[in-house]
Write a structure and sequence with these properties.
heterodimer, A: Rossmann fold, seven-stranded mixed sheet, 10 helices, 9 strands, 32% helix, globular, B: alpha/beta, Pyruvate-ferredoxin Oxidoreductase, domain 3, Rossmann fold, 3 domains, six-stranded mixed sheet, 19 helices
């Protein structure tokens, strides 16, 4: 059996987390970028969760939003483009005591990292993934992204994009993610609620946050911003109170209903689309495999196991 | 030397006819059939028997890249003394089919024995160079196991025949058969034993009295027991010995058997191996494990290593330790997936973007696969670095016997270092070794580190400061250079000074070793050094090179645009020694001893060298030896 770590068994009492403790480098984002609000909301989520600071891990790929870990005072890392999910899954599977958060944008998550999104959802490791979707490549200065709407004029589609954009909610539900939610960077309380619930979900939880790039796609999400004349329509979740109006409310455990919600016309609704509390995490399944296997070996020591293996090669 | 065939091993009911037999100390048996005939199993039994009898053994196999079927061979060489190669040509050819006979007749030495399935093979009746022995292997097997129409078991029937011909230890072989098939249902074990006994009982007169026995060395009283396995298995258990408990991979031949074994073994040790969606996810998940404090392993074969290359650059930049195994095969692209080539050396050393120094090790034998894995883990942890183990298809699949490792001395218990870091902790100190602080460790400074693929300062903050990039690049380079100080001095076999030094790496160790002996017999003073530490190179090489008039680097890759193989190119660039020349080939096969001798003679312009290979089989009469 693997040896326990060298961490001290008990730690000294500690002060609660707050923004002052959690803030790290000053963000490099452009003034007005939606990601500032996501960061502020994330600090609030960590304050509410109040995990031991050293157990929080933030990881990201490449892109504007992927700078996120530098701005959070936690263990973390800035990995390569599109691959933060398998990396974060490794952290989560190897160390069940940690709270793992991955961050990224729409290019990182749906384009170069699309394969990993599907397979991480399928494997269901215990971790949270926050996608800041601005529907454009910002760091490389305005190319079409996988969520750019049809007709979007970019440096790579000056005549207007004509490749069908990804529907993130549909893709995530279809891939088997066990917690799928959607929010908007102008709605801080809603973001806090979504990320808080995602963090507490036992499995792979994803929150897509529409986060405007004021530099290269200004006004992209105005249709869902009441201050710009749009409508921010929240999903009303079933309360199971037996009232007639409850029948009209959304049941997040209903995959088909979630899928139908995902197909609604732009800008669609915000809230928890889908939540599956029954599917075991990969963490739990691997732990079970280890426990069963160890039982079969009668909890033999590593040395005994290996000596037996070599004896069979004689 | 003539001895009487011992009757003590004969199963009950077989004729204990005292036929004359000659004692041999070395025999090469080639089994040729199709991949589903179980000839690998027979070869495996012979190899393990040799291991259990304190004999030396070396095997060589080819497998088709088709899913099922296709011609396949397994060659096993067993005997006393140093057995370093699988043998250039065979003393016995077992031919299951006409195509096996036709393709491999030329691999049989004059005076050798052609043992063929008379149900399928019609040998050339005019061929008097070898002793042809026809046995109805298929029909005799069907008869022995009870009239089933299946041919299954004819491999074990052949094992019985070989046991009879070479007076092999029957109790040990039947134990091996029971061990191998014991987990399955009893019918399988019974049928296997029936087939074996039938083969063993085949009348020796019909075998044209081709009866021999292998010299049995008396085992040294204090000798460790021998274990018999292939290179991929040895490497896998080396990793486990070294305390590696986490990993991730994606299937590709011939790497897959390492990941399969790790997937089933690691849970026993409390670890996890993840089969990922692709090569990039695999290296990323492995890096995630390493980042979290548990040194992890990923691996692949050539094309898969290319896919991982970007992530390897990150591992170098972020200084996260990782072991990457590359079981080389023929390339580029899908190339020759089941053949042998040593053409990923440059990829292993330089494959990524930017200046990305890493450690590259190359085991030379199956046994060395085990110890190299341990060395790789030690270096990765001590220097917080990427270590690539460069092995190849030949080492991966061939079976050798070696001394059982001294596990209590070798086992490493590794645990993540989550001790609190004091306020002066820097993730990337310029004046010291990077010591990664995994998540879970409390930072005394209150500042938690971000490991980064961006160039960074000592605290891990991104920076494009020109002076810092120079300093950090130098830090990463010097760290890898410092690894060389941990190496043992290189060993030189043969003449320690003289006319010619042969330099090899990887699976060519045995054939080069034997080639040295043959070249010495021609009057040349020849030495051999095998490069296990590919990057950084072993500092002891320069002085060794200076002691020889000529140096030839022997490798299985192309001579390239400038006439030198990949290691030769590297050595010439490193040592600026004009005596360094290159001998390469690209036929996807291991080097034969005679091939090396011939190529060396040609390369040096020497016409007087005899290849030294014995022309006649040891099975031929003494008058033809």
């Amino acid at each position: 059996m693997s040896a326990p770590s060298t961490a001290p068994a008990t730690s000294a009492p500690r002060a609660p987390l707050n923004k002052k403790v959690l803030a790290a480098d000053h963000p490099t984002w452009c003034p007005g970028c939606g990601d500032f609000a996501v960061l502020a909301a994330f600090y609030k989520v960590l304050e509410k969760l109040n995990y031991p600071q050293e157990k929080i891990v933030t990881f990201a790929g490449i892109g504007c939003s992927s700078r996120f870990p530098y701005f959070v005072n936690s263990h973390g890392g800035h990995y390569i483009h599109g691959r933060s999910l398998p990396f974060a899954a490794g952290i989560s599977l190897g160390r069940d005591d940690l709270h793992v958060f991955a961050f990224g944008g729409d290019g990182d998550g749906f384009s170069i990292g699309g394969n990993h999104l599907v397979h991480t959802a399928r494997k269901n490791p215990r971790m949270t993934y926050v996608i800041m979707d601005n529907s454009v490549y910002g760091l490389t200065k305005k190319q079409t992204s996988p969520t750019s709407p049809l007709g979007f004029k970019s440096k790579t589609d000056p005549w207007g994009a004509f490749d069908q954009p990804i529907n993130p909610m549909r893709t995530l539900i279809n891939s088997g993610a066990t917690f799928v939610a959607r929010s908007h960077a102008t709605q801080v309380n809603h973001m806090v609620e979504m990320m808080y619930r995602a963090a507490q979900h036992d499995g792979f939880s994803v929150v897509e946050i529409l986060s405007e790039c004021v530099e290269f796609f200004e006004g992209a999400f105005d249709a869902a911003n009441p201050r710009k004349g749009g409508a921010f329509t929240m999903i009303e979740e079933k309360k199971h109170d037996g009232t007639p109006e409850d029948a009209q409310r959304h049941d997040p455990t209903d995959e088909l209903a979630a899928f139908q919600l995902a197909l609604e016309a732009w800008p669609g609704k915000f809230g928890v689309y889908y939540e599956n509390k029954k599917r075991p995490t990969k963490n739990a399944l691997e732990a079970k495999l280890i426990a069963n296997t160890r039982e079969k070996t009668k909890n033999a020591s590593d040395l005994d196991l290996l000596q037996k293996t070599f004896a069979r090669m004689r | 030397m003539v001895s009487l065939n011992s009757s003590s091993n004969n199963p009950e009911g077989t004729p204990a006819k005292a036929a004359p037999s000659r004692t041999l100390n070395d025999v090469v048996i080639r089994l040729a059939g199709n991949s589903q005939d179980g000839i690998q199993a027979v070869g495996g039994f012979l190899a393990r028997l040799a291991g259990r009898s304190a004999q030396e053994v070396m095997t060589y196999m080819t497998i088709p890249s088709t899913i099922s079927g296709g011609p396949s061979i397994f060659q096993v060489r067993m005997g006393t003394g140093d057995i370093l190669s699988a043998g250039d040509r065979a003393d016995v050819l077992v031919a299951f089919y006409q195509h096996s006979y036709e393709s491999h007749r030329a691999a049989l030495r004059p005076g050798g024995i052609l043992l063929y399935d008379s149900d399928h093979v019609q040998p050339n009746p005019d061929d008097k160079e070898v002793t042809a022995v026809g046995v109805p292997m298929t029909s005799a097997t069907v008869e022995a196991v009870g009239g089933s129409s299946k041919e299954k078991g004819k491999n074990i029937y052949v094992l019985g025949l070989l046991a009879r011909m070479f007076d092999l230890n029957v109790p040990k072989l039947t134990t091996l058969i029971k061990e191998r098939f014991g987990g399955k249902n009893e019918d399988i074990v019974r049928n296997a034993l029936l087939a074996f006994d039938a083969g063993y009982a085949y009348p020796s007169e019909n075998l044209r009295n081709c009866l021999y026995r292998l010299d049995q060395p008396a085992p040294a009283p204090d000798a460790r027991p021998q274990v018999t396995t292939d290179g991929n298995t040895a490497l896998t258990y080396g990793l486990i010995t070294a305390g590696v408990r986490y990993g991730a991979g994606y299937p590709i031949t011939p790497w897959s058997s390492i990941m399969e074994t790790l997937r089933t073994e690691l849970p026993k040790y409390g670890g996890i191996f993840v089969q990922c969606e692709d090569e990039i996810a695999a290296v990323s998940t492995a890096l995630g494990f390493s980042y979290a404090g548990n040194l992890a392993i990923t691996g692949s074969s050539g094309p898969g290593l290319s896919l991982k290359a970007e992530a390897l650059g990150w591992a170098v930049m972020a200084e996260i330790p990782l072991i990457v195994v590359n079981v080389q095969r023929g390339g580029p692209s899908t190339g020759l997936p089941t053949n042998i080539e040593q053409s990923d050396l440059m990829q292993a050393i330089y494959g990524s973007h930017g200046d990305a120094p890493r450690v590259v090790l190359a085991p030379k034998t199956v046994e060395d696969c085990y110890y190299t894995a341990i060395e790789a883990a030690k270096i990765a942890r001590e220097f917080s670095t990427l270590v690539i183990i460069l092995t190849d298809q030949a080492l991966a699949t061939r079976i050798e016997a070696f001394d059982e490792p001294d596990l209590p001395k070798l086992m490493i218990e590794a645990k993540p270092d989550l001790s609190p870091r004091d306020a002066s902790f820097k993730p990337y100190p310029l004046d010291g070794m990077t010591r990664h602080a995994p998540p879970g460790s409390v930072m005394g400074s209150g500042k938690y580190p971000t490991v980064s693929g961006l160039e960074h300062d000592e605290l891990g903050h991104p920076t494009a400061n020109p002076a810092l990039h120079s300093k950090m690049t130098a830090k990463r380079r010097e760290k890898v250079k410092a690894v060389a100080a941990t190496y043992p001095a290189p060993e030189v076999f043969g003449d320690q000074t003289g006319d010619l030094l042969l330099v090899g790496w990887g699976c060519t160790y045995g054939p080069i070793h034997e080639a040295v002996e043959r070249l010495q017999a021609s009057g040349l003073k020849v030495g051999h050094v095998h490069v296990r530490h590919i990057h950084p190179l072993n500092p002891g090489l320069e002085a060794i090179f200076a002691r020889y008039k000529q140096i030839r680097v022997i490798e299985i890759n192309d001579e390239g645009l400038y006439g030198y193989g990949q290691l030769a190119t590297l050595l010439r660039a490193r040592y600026c020694n004009p005596a360094i020349g290159s001998i390469t080939k690209t036929d996807g096969l291991t080097f034969r001893v005679s091939e090396i001798v011939e190529l060396v003679a040609k390369n040096l312009g020497i016409s007087s060298i005899k290849t030294g290979a014995r022309k006649f089989s040891v099975l031929a009469g003494p008058d033809r030896q």
